[in-house]
Design brief:
With 435 residues, the protein is an all-alpha fold. The chain has one domain. The chain contains 17 helices and two strands. It has a two-stranded antiparallel ribbon with strand order 1-2. The radius of gyration is 21 Å and the shape is globular.
Length: 435
């Protein structure tokens, strides 16, 4: 598959070079959604995916475009995304041999920082957002249909491609059926990643309801298809994210009650801690695990992270397995919690930087929502905020991997670009200087 991967990457790069920046970004998103990350071009010990080739060309195109660079304004979120990536990179170079760290972080930076900056540069106004969102909604339709076919028939057309991967276990077939359905994996190789692709993009598709043409009517149908696509993964992580994102979207007409809702949730959390015979996170994770079976694992993982804090707080576990497998009833440690993963991979420094990045993203969304006089920009801020909040909730049940990493930084890039859509932001200084 090396020839196919290289051919697709070259074709995508040609399109990126000839198309306008916003459409070039759409080409990159199409590659992310449809082409497996485990199909690579191998050069010695380096495995290069089509996604990374395309991302590099897209960012180069943006950086050499004087018009885009003239519109770009640095914001505090840009700083914290960069700080987080820098912290993770430094720690990786400390714990790994130089050559291994260089190869590993090279790919990591392309997957995260290149994606983030590409979105920040390509999306400069609401019109760009609508163009990208309309194409996303179209691209998700065949994926949703594929998910339904896989779930009901068990036929997974992309699964056989995993044999061409340079590493083992590149794809997880549906495994044991749940409710008589096969867990759909799509092009992503794993049901959790496949489901998260839909839940991450759902609020953007639903945002199209504001359009006064056929798109406004189709937004409801397209959103329904995206929900079905997420459910075809038959996986607790995406299902928890789906519930969270739907609740967030449904709250928009009642946002004046948001403060009351948050106070109520806080009180319920305190009462759950007092009244339950187990830690409150056991209760919360149990509620976020509608399919059962792995709720105990996720809660126990948090217990173990707290119990072994002294082992990982400085530099994580040096890239090694924490050794918690036997206490979780398995041979290895399945870290299905992204906050725990940050800790055991990069120590407390990576975890703190990650939390600060998320905090600044939420503050930026609040700032844009409260500062803009345009109801469409307010609604867009709410839609993207729904993605960020539901992702934070889902992080208690999943770790980002594969395409879900690209899409997460795509969303963060859109958060930063929202600042361009507000003409006057008196409070902008609170987010740091704009260059």
């Amino acid at each position: 598959m090396t020839g196919a991967t290289l051919s697709i990457a070259i074709a995508a790069c040609i399109l990126i070079l000839v198309l306008r920046p916003v459409y070039a970004l759409i080409v990159y998103l199409a590659i992310i959604l449809f082409y497996p990350t485990y199909l690579v071009v191998s050069l010695g010990t380096i495995d290069i995916t089509a996604h990374r080739i395309v991302a590099s060309v897209l960012l180069l195109k943006c950086l050499t475009n004087a018009n885009l660079m003239g519109k770009f304004k640095w914001c505090r979120l840009d700083t914290w995304v960069t700080v987080f990536i820098f912290v993770c990179t430094v720690i990786t170079f400390i714990i790994y041999p130089f050559q291994v760290a260089l190869e590993n972080r090279g790919g990591f930076i392309i997957d995260t920082w290149f994606m983030y900056l590409g979105v920040r540069l390509c999306i400069t106004n609401r019109t760009d957002v609508l163009k990208v969102t309309k194409w996303i909604s179209v691209l998700l339709v065949p994926l949703a249909i594929l998910g339904v076919v896989e779930a009901y028939t068990g036929y997974q057309p992309f699964a056989s491609l995993a044999a061409n991967a340079p590493w083992a276990l590149a794809t997880e077939r549906g495994g044991a059926a749940r409710f008589g359905l096969t867990r759909a994996i799509g092009p992503n190789g794993h049901p959790i990643i496949f489901g998260l692709c839909f839940t991450t993009l759902l609020p953007l598709v639903y945002y199209l309801r504001h359009e006064r043409n056929n798109w406004g009517t189709m937004a409801y149908l397209l959103s329904g298809l995206v929900i079905i696509g997420a459910m075809s993964s038959v996986s607790s992580g995406p299902f928890a994210a789906l519930i969270a994102v739907i609740v967030c979207m449904a709250m928009e007409p009642f946002k004046k009650y948001l403060r009351d809702v948050l106070i109520g949730l806080g009180c319920c959390t305190v009462l759950a801690e007092i009244g339950s015979n187990r830690p409150v996170w056991h209760v919360i994770v149990g509620c976020l695990n509608p399919f059962g079976g792995s709720g105990w694992h996720r809660a126990r993982l948090i217990d173990l992270a707290i119990e072994h804090f002294g082992e990982w707080y400085l530099l994580g576990y040096g890239g090694k397995d924490p050794g918690w497998g036997p206490q979780l009833g398995m041979t290895h440690t399945d870290i299905c919690n992204h906050f725990v993963f940050m800790g055991v991979a990069y120590g407390v420094w990576g975890l703190i930087a990650f939390c600060f990045m998320l905090t600044v993203a939420v503050r930026t969304l609040i700032l844009v929502h409260n500062s803009s006089a345009d109801p469409m920009v307010k609604s867009l801020a709410w839609a993207i905020g729904s993605i960020v909040i539901s992702s934070i909730i889902a992080f208690s049940s999943v770790s980002l991997m594969g395409q879900s990493i690209f899409l997460f930084y795509f969303v963060l890039g859109m958060v930063g670009s929202l600042l361009n859509m507000v003409v006057t932001i008196p409070e902008a200084e609170t987010l740091g200087p704009h260059k």
